[in-house]
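Researcher: Final request for today, and then I'll write up notes for the group meeting. The sequence and the SMILES for guanosine-5'-triphosphate follow.
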Amino acid sequence: MSLDSLSAPIAPSSSASRTIALAGNPNCGKTTLFNALTGLRQRVGNYAGVTVEKKEGKLQVGETDVNVVDIPGIYSLSARSLDEQVARNVLLGTQADASRPDFIVSIVDASNLERNLYLTTQLMELGRPVLVALNMMDVAAQNGIDIDAAALGEALGVPVLPIVASREVGLEPLKRRLVEPLPPLPKRHWKLAPSLEDEIKKLADFLTEHQLIEPLAAEGEAIRLLLNDMEAAPVQIELPPELENRIIQARERLEAADIDWWAVEAEARYGWIKHICAHAVVTAEGFKHTTSDKIDRVVTHRILGPLFFAFILILVFESISRFAQYPMDLIGGFFDYAGDWVRGLVPPGDMQGLLADGVIPGVGGVITFLPQILILSFFISLLEDSGYMARAAFIMDRIMRRVGLNGKSFIPLLSSFACAIPGIMATRTIENPKDRLVTILIAPLMSCSARLPVYLLMIHTFFPSGKRIGIFSTQTVVLFSMYVLGIVAAIGMGWLFKKTLLRGHSPPLIMELPPYRFPAWRNVFSTMLTRAGQFLQRAGTVILAISMVLWFLAAYPKNIQLSRNYATERQQMETRFQAGQLTEAEKEQQLAELKVAEASERSRKSYLGTMGHTLEPAIRPLGFNWKIGIGLISAFAAREVIISTMAIVYSVGDDEANENTQSLQKALQNDRYPDGRPVYTPLVAVALMVFFVLALQCMSTFAIVRRETNSWRWPFFMLGYMTALAYVTTLIVYQGGRMLGF
Amino acid sequence: MSETTPTNTVLKITLDTLKIGQEARVDRVRGGRANAQRLQEMGLIAGTTIRILKFAPLGDPIEIFLRGYHLTLRREEAAFIEVTPL
Ligand SMILES: Nc1nc2c(ncn2[C@@H]2O[C@H](COP(=O)(O)OP(=O)(O)OP(=O)(O)O)[C@@H](O)[C@H]2O)c(=O)[nH]1
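Model: Predicted protein-guanosine-5'-triphosphate complex:
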């Protein structure tokens, strides 16, 4: 390497623009600072190939454009978790889709200085200038911590600027500092035993020689590689064999000299931190009861804690069911209207059908989830921002551990009772990739609100309202059982996945309980809008495609042999009306009936209908006929679609499904097999509900799993396992029920 | 490590056996290396003073106070942390 390339990275990438990275511990106020710096000029996405969130924004200071890259909140750069790994790659410029920052801003929570500075010491070894933004100065002052920023900067060897991000105090000097000439590269001040330093130097030289990393960051990388035990890390990085060998040999030499290489790094860093703080910080030592502790006395109290938790849950779900309904109806109405409008605008034909019966209702069916997602993500970001989420995990950890998960999986699973989509999006708070995946895989087993209409139709049609089991009506018991079945299945499958496919010791729960803070509304709303936008954008494309396919299957083939000549019959009616044999009202009614009959026959003879027939032998053992088969296929668009599909198949007209549930109920009750047996018995109804509890019939979930796991493998796996589970369970229920004489 | 000399015969007290409100000094973090390193990164290294604050409603995990912040960990991990009560 020439001297040129050594000094090159220090200069800003161009005089008019500069890239800075914000790095810090979780809860240090990073998001708040990022929002305060960039305002609305930000973009949220994913780093290529991984599920780690990528946030970028822009701001202008004087003449200079500053690109701000937000690094995921982490405690360490040892790169054991995916977040840490991506953070390290971005900061070193080895992440393919992110440009290397010129300048690293290390955000430090002044009220929690020592632990926050741990990451700072690591950031100082990446070969980039570092600036410390000393945030939460107000909280520190409140807690009796007095920090001399200048002295701290002196001791650290990097500039330190005090700020209060939530009140935008100190931001102007910070912004100005971002575009001034860069400070010199930080130096490593803490030292290890000579034999360790020796090994680090050797390894760093090797890294530089083989151009495995840029020279300025080689020492830091050597420290990380040599002193961190990555064996049990959830994410493994493949190292070049020669490097791997060198590390192993170096460790063997150290062990031979009786040095616990894996225990020295944290001690040395904290040792130096202690030394620095002794110079710059006056602390009221020891534990004091803060407001936060007083709140916690209730919120994590042995008895009051769980009660409060239950109260929060009820509040969230009441809000979803109460406030989401109205906008959902409104959105539904809007799309119905849009469909009609298109029908009036586009001449009848494939184009009209594709738009009015495929794309518009398909997309509409997905957008109706938006209110639920907005409300749930509002609460989730509120709970997260205020610090309660960690308490929820604290309370629930013991129970979730039974399944092999930890407390952080609870909220996403619970959210899935409203809708699996926000639930799956909420799994982002789970750092361990395996735990996160298990949680995603079992989330759709929770009975979401889209299943409810199906349950209700079956229950009201086949279980008389007067009957009772004990003190409860049969209807309530059946409904409740369906919810319980979903939970039991989720627990069972979660346990099974942890035992088999996604085995691996869960990393222990080592979690900070941050102090309670009044949530920043700007953060809450920006998170909420971001989530909604991601849902629309992520799910949108897949859903559009599936809607179009389903429409095609339902509408084609066109030229089929129909049993009646509908056109002629329509003609005849018109003639009879002209001749005075029919009143206007009679004609209208007969025309409507004819239309329904035609739609019914067409759908039976469509590809979808043919598929229903083809499917029949497979689903007959479950007690289902081909009409239910059609319903099941179409329900993949969204579960409740089965109702409107069945309405078409049973010729009861599909407009105003509500008004026609009565007639649909009758049609279902009266449906017979050729030998006169009823198609539906209470047992068939139960079997159908069981199938709905367990099957993945929701293209939006499918799409969001595709996005969140960044692979096709997991959504297909989910589809496969849930279908198999649904099939086998329904088979057992139906055949078992028959043997018992139901 | 710096101080491995004493205590080969004495049974060490571990963090999970402490009572609420008790303070202690960390002597050593044992257990798997990766887990131990995680705990060390969070500031649980020899010489650190900790205080037991609370047990979760079902008795586990434990909430402790160290270096000015609150950390929660399970009894399972706490059993690897050797301490001297103060
Ligand atoms: N009192 C005070 N509160 C602050 C300050 N900066 C941020 N907060 C609050 O601290 C909480 C956490 O801030 P965030 O910006 O979400 O923290 P973060 O680092 O992005 O946290 P993660 O998203 O978990 O990584 C929020 O409730 C903020 O309103 C500050 O300087 N003073």
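Model: The pocket of guanosine-5'-triphosphate is lined by residues A 24, 26-32, 73, 135-136, 138-139, 164-166, 385, 517, 519-520, 523 (CB under 6 Å). Chain A touches chain B through 52 residues (CB under 8 Å).
Researcher: Thanks, that's everything.
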